[in-house]
Amino acid sequence: MGTVDWNSLPSLALHQVFTHLSPESRVAASSTCKHWRTALYHPQFWHSLVLDISSAGTSYAEVKSKVKHANKNLVTLVRDIHLAFDSRSTQCFELASSVIKALMGNELLRNVDIELNHCELSKDEIFQYRWSIQNYFEFAILNVVQKGNIEGFSFGYFMFYYWNALIHMLSKYSCDSLQRLELAGLGPSVFNEESKTTCFNSTFDSMSSLINLKKLSLDLNSNTCKLLPALCSMSQLEILVLHVHNELDIDISDDIWADIKKYCPKLELRLTIINCHIVAKHLHTKLLRPSIPLTHHKVLFCNVINVEVLH
Asked: Which residues form the F-box domain (predicted)?
């Protein structure tokens, strides 16, 4: 019997061997040679990826190298990705954008969770440039969700500027698969002109088509208040998270809550008032109604929130 060349084992055999190893042992084994290292990057071994892009405590060169490695070897393999980054840093924003761009080559993607470590962008001398990066960032996300079959999406702690376009895309390509949509922010809601002029009926219809949602979070304002009746099509909805940042210029009648409660029997409403003294003072007349399915309530009196404290 001839000598076995372990460095030249077929990829199928290596994958079988790797399935019997723990993640730590798998990484150690992959350092044996380049051929074994290549076998490590298989979708079977990378179901999820948590990528934290922050320059705190490390050099930018190291962070950039980590992101480059992830984009080349991991981002296109995972089903679930959690991307966190420092939104105050233009460099971190650019790296995060490169990750989203790499996701466009992922055919397995099911869950996208994006967390900005601060609830607002710094308004410094390069603010306009950073704002343009955010626009590019969001358009890249819209391209990613067009791939379809998304099961969960969250954009944490900062408002998704093109939120209505996002809902349209998710309803068009993932209406049957989407179970979780989290868009509630911690800062004031600011709408661009496109948001103000978008056809309401179209957005309402898109929201109504997300019939398999189990968790939904939104910023509650004059735009999203009008979308609440769309929840009546979501019979499986279990958790509704609403953040209020500004005084509401529209009343939500008890009939609306009664209908939602009727068609979503398992629904729990979690209401958070953020730095809005007027709403907090008149909560009993502005928001609370006999049929509201309220189970959790928080009032935060602060201008800038450290999102790390919320974990």
From this structure: 3-49
